[in-house]
Amino acid sequence: MKHYLLILISFFNPFLYSQAKKSTDSIIYYNKLANTNLQNKKYDQAVFFTEKSIAFCASNNKSENLANQTFKLGKIYYNLGNYEDALKNFHRSVSLFSKVKPTCTKALALHYIGITNTAKGNYKTAHIYYTKAENLLKKLNIADSAEILSYQKAMAFKANNNFPLAIQTFQSIIKKPDNSSILKAKTDAYYQLGLLETQLQQNDSALFYFDNALEMSAKNNDLAQKSKIVLGISRYYKKNRDFDLAYSYLDEHYQIENYILKIKNAKLDLNEFEKFKKNQSISTSLKRESEEKIQLKTYRYSKLVSILAIALISILSLLSLALYKNNIIRNQNNLLLREKNKELILAKNKAEKASKARSEFLSTVSHELRTPLNAINGITHLLLEDSPKKTQLKYLESLKFSGNYLTTFINEILEINKIDSTKIEIENISFNLKELLFNIQSSLKELAAANKNYFNLEIDETIPDNLIGDPTKLSQIILNLINNALKFTQNGHVSVIAKLYAIEDESAIVYFEIVDTGIGIPEDKLQTVFESFSQGSVEVNRKYGGTGLGLTIVKKLIELLGGEIKLKSEVGKGSAFTFRLDFRINKEPLEIKEEAKSYNDIHFQHKSILLIEDNKINQMITRKMLENKAITCEIIDNGEDAVELLKVKKFDMILMDVHLPGINGTTATKQIREFDKTTPIIALTAISLDENRDMLLSFGMNDVITKPFAPDEFYSIIAKFFDKN
After folding, report:
1. Residues 6+ apart with CB under 8 A from 135
2. pLDDT surpassing 50 at residue 529
3. What backbone torsions phi and psi does residue 459 show, to the nearest 5 degrees?
4. Which residue, 107, 138, 90, 104, is CA-closest to 11?
5. Nearest Cα residue to 30 out of 6, 57, 10
6. Element (H, E) at 612
């Protein structure tokens, strides 16, 4: 900014002080004192001498000088941040200029009124004075070809955190045609746009502007400017936690700075060398004269040679000192660079440790949640098979639905990294949206009743019955939003609205809205509430609980399905989440198919299975499920006893839990395979199947069943190995 002010002042300098040079020595004297104090940052003294100059001009009827000096006083107040006094002097300067022929200084005063009002947030007033300044320059046939005034205006908007107007003004600069005078301003405008887009988290736009800034700086051949841009890119990558690229650009920044320093030192060395050459030339001339008169002036020649030798030694000493200082500066820069490198390496290591800790945490959570879920799903299955009463059937079906959903939900949370890396697959299957929403409403009625909420479901009848899309992800989105609404609302209303927004070709666009009358979200949290582990406040977290991942998953899933979520909220009045999704219409009627069993119960009769499991509930559930198929089940709760038993007793199959007290399931399997190569061993594990299947099979296991397991899948895998026997 200071650089541009210097250019601007130098541009207008002939006009600003044209009258001062013609005036008496008093104006020049006061100006000199004021400028000296400004350079020494003695602003009170600078103001004092400028006011002295103004008083002198007023008493001597120097109208144009009076206007110039008044503008100068306003500019001092502006740089000090005293906007009120700055505006008073700028307006007074413009008023004084109205009595004389218009000059560039008047245009500059109008422009400064604009940027001062921008700094105060008075954008309409600022715009009026910017326009006046531009019109006056046009009237004077002076073009701001370097776009200095526009750049000043944009920087004022940025300093006042008015980013939209700042971006608009910078973009107007970069749209100007390229020429040598505007090159620097365009480069800096691209750089400032990169910084603003980084701050606004518009990553693609930020990189685009930074790349253009680098390209423009190459044309300008301004190393200092390029160094600044490269440092900005490094900080961008650091903010986005890409530490390798951040380090790479930071290293380039320090290399450029080191090169600039070398150039400065080289210029110093060249000056010293020129002095040396000059002295050598003098020495040669004197030597030539002394040779001509050598017989007459032998003594004087010897004395002169001695003096020149001393001078030469002094020059060489100065050169050595300069080289020594240069070496010290280079070592200091290298030391600083090494320190910065260490900081980046430490930051990178911390990020890797955090990522590893996160993976370990998710693995632990997976195991701890899947184990009790296996018990819930298993007991529900057993109760459903045990001929429950009709009054109980409805509750058991709801429990089964909730358990199955919770299993899917845990899997989705554990695969949030897949969403980020776009590796997650989107289903396209037929489903009934109305039936899906009714099932969700039924599963959440108890939660609504617990907080004494009226839970309403409004479905547009014109929505086609059969749609093609991803019902699992849609269920997760709507369940998350309704859960939030019910959790943060008490004695209120929660409404789920589904409307047909439009039908285009063979697609239906459905509009969803989840509205509540709950506690609401503060305005300053409306953007961050979608970030991971983010909630309205610490108090909200303590009172209502939760991980802060729900809305993050919702936003990512909606974007994955091609939509965009919007939020309106007011503290104490409630919140409304809205989004639209596009579904293809299935014109064929939705067939209700019962999945054919891939096994026959006859396969299980007279079979014996050894279950190695340490959890008592899982022992009970698994034994009951096996006995329901007429399978004999024997249970061992640790790996050591199981290995010893299998040495003396034969079973048709072994079900091996991976996590056991003592030796774990994989070690037990390796020991069994040393003496038994044929008996099928199936792993029972609560860890993610995608991450561990190959590893478990490598220990000698034949297949893997992941907890919580679906009964039909459980029986199908067992039957598959019985068929082979």
Report:
1. none
2. yes
3. -120, 125
4. 104
5. 57
6. strand 608-612
